[in-house]
């Protein structure tokens, strides 16, 4: 938009300057020509009054001396002609109408100004001499006797001085216009910034809000009324979004916190039932305890999710291989009872700096999904792989949770991380929040989750952690 405003501004400035300069130059040329023309008309009219007897008698007499003196004084040739265009008297010997303006080839015809005068009319004032014209200014006055035109007095004034004066004034005018244009173009940048300042403020606020700074607001105390209304609408929208997110976080945190205490009490009571069970009921008792532990982990994930908008997070160094080993050991009994095989592979001694508790909760969600949807006999491999850094960055660590279950089509893999998405498995519980929570947790430390098909079948869930 800044470029458009600058383009419109500069275009209007140039058009206004040209619209001022061109008429001004025309007025300067017309004014100079008018002054010269008025002076020559007076001189020519005087000669027309003196030349009447000479035209009637056909003898120049003393008129030639008057014309010669005038020509010598001002350098302006004068010719007196009769009604047929024949020269009666001239200021220069051998002067004719053709010699007054050699540049004009009239083909033997009388000049237009002379024809006008012989017709009894005076020369109009619409003649303008421009700097690029090099001919003289021809002025003709009719010579009359008792209302009858008997001849004409003609002067041919050189226009060199007039053209130079006009050109000099034009240069001054164009210099002033150029200075005005330069000043206007120099002011274009600050003026455009001033005009677009409310829009720039709105753009900065929008970027800040989209980046997570929900407390950013637009200043609405100044600026055009339309942009003030737009800023107020933006602030109201930001307030609504912040209020909704705060309500959502409060609800999630409240729900997770309130459920933890009953779950802890429930686990103690279920655990205390072990001494009252028969050996046949022991497996079911262990399954109940596992489910209670799983619910506890879900509550922890809810609380962590509710804190993802906090300004400060507890960031610690963690050994990726140790975290993977702990989660594999924790899930091994559940995998065994489900008839699945859970193994760990990969490198040792790889440490990353991440938000405390996010990696193990992400692995819990991925392993749980693999067990839940992989089917009986599924094999789950948790593999750690370090990718060295290069010119583009310090490198990263990939943690793969790969199963050989039925998998999902590629189109559904792209949607699996959406909140509340379900793939339609019959008889399998779940809210569709597990993977979306994993994505949110990983984003806290700049990590990401991607789902790809495994070979020959299954799902390869990859957690990429920056080093």
Features:
467 residues, alpha+beta, Beta-Lactamase, Helix Hairpins, Heat Shock Protein 90, 3 domains, five-stranded mixed sheet, four-stranded antiparallel sheet, rod-shaped
Short characterization:
With 467 residues, the protein is of the alpha+beta class. The protein has helices at 2-50, 52-57, 63-74, 97-100, 112-118, 160-186, 188-210, 225-272, 282-306, 320-337, 358-374, 410-415, 434-443, and strands at 78-82, 87-90, 137-145, 148-157, 315-319, 341-346, 351-355, 379-390, 393-403, 448-453, 459-466.
Characterise the protein shown here.
- The protein is α+β, with helices and mostly antiparallel strands.
- The protein folds into three domains: 2-181, Beta-Lactamase (2-Layer Sandwich), CATH 3.30.450.20; 206-312, Helix Hairpins; 313-466, Histidine kinase-like ATPase, C-terminal domain (Heat Shock Protein 90).
- The protein contains 13 helices and eleven strands.
- The chain has helices at 2-50, 52-57, 63-74, 97-100, 112-118, 160-186, 188-210, 225-272, 282-306, 320-337, 358-374, 410-415, 434-443, and strands at 78-82, 87-90, 137-145, 148-157, 315-319, 341-346, 351-355, 379-390, 393-403, 448-453, 459-466.
- The strands form three sheets. It has a five-stranded mixed beta sheet with strand order 6-8-9-11-10. A four-stranded antiparallel beta sheet has the order 2-1-4-3, with helices on both faces.
- α7 packs parallel to α8, α10 packs parallel to α11 (358-374) and α11 runs antiparallel to α13.
- The two termini are 40 Å apart.
- Residues 426-430 have low confidence and may be disordered.
């Amino acid at each position: 938009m800044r470029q458009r405003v600058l383009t419109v501004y500069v275009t209007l400035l140039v058009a206004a300057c040209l619209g001022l300069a061109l008429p001004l130059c025309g007025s300067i040329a017309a004014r100079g020509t008018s002054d010269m023309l008025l002076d020559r008309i007076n001189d020519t009219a005087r000669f027309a009054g003196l030349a009447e007897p000479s035209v009637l008698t056909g003898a120049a007499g003393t008129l030639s001396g008057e014309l010669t003196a005038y020509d010598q004084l001002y350098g302006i040739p004068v010719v007196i002609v009769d009604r047929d265009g024949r020269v009666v008297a001239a200021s220069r010997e051998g002067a004719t109408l053709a010699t007054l303006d050699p540049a004009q080839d009239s083909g033997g015809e009388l000049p237009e100004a002379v024809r006008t005068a012989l017709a009894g009319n005076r020369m109009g004032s619409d003649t303008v001499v421009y700097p690029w014209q090099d001919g003289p200014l021809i002025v003709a006055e009719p010579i009359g006797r008792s209302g009858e035109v008997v001849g004409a007095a003609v002067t041919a004034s050189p226009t060199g001085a007039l053209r130079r004066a006009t050109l000099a004034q034009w240069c001054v005018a164009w210099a002033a216009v150029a200075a005005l244009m330069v000043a206007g173009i120099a002011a274009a940048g600050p003026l455009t910034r001033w005009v677009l300042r409310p829009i720039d403020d709105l753009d900065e606020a929008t970027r800040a809000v989209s980046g997570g700074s929900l407390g950013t607001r637009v200043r609405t105390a100044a600026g055009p009324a339309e942009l003030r209304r737009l800023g107020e609408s933006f602030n109201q929208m930001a307030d609504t979004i912040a209020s909704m997110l705060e309500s959502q976080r409060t609800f999630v945190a409240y729900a997770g916190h309130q459920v933890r205490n009953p779950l802890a009490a429930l686990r103690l009571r279920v655990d205390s039932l072990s001494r009252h069970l028969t050996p046949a009921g022991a497996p079911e008792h262990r399954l109940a305890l596992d489910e209670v532990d799983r619910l506890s982990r879900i509550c922890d994930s809810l609380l962590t999710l509710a804190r993802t908008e906090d300004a400060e997070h507890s960031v610690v160094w963690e050994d990726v291989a140790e975290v993977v080993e702990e989660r594999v050991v924790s899930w091994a009994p559940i995998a065994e009872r489900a008839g699945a095989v859970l193994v760990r592979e990969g490198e040792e001694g790889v440490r990353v700096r991440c938000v405390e508790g996010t990696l193990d909760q992400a692995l819990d969600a991925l392993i749980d999904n693999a067990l839940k949807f992989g089917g009986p006999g599924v094999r789950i491999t948790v593999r750690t792989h370090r990718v060295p850094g290069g010119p583009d960055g310090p490198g990263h660590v990939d943690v793969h949770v790969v199963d050989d279950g039925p998998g999902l089509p590629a189109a559904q893999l792209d949607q699996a991380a959406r909140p509340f998405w379900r793939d339609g498995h019959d008889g399998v519980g779940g809210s569709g929040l597990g993977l979306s929570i994993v994505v949110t947790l990983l984003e806290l430390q700049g990590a990401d989750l991607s789902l790809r098909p495994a070979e020959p079948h299954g799902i390869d869930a990859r957690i990429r952690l920056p080093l």
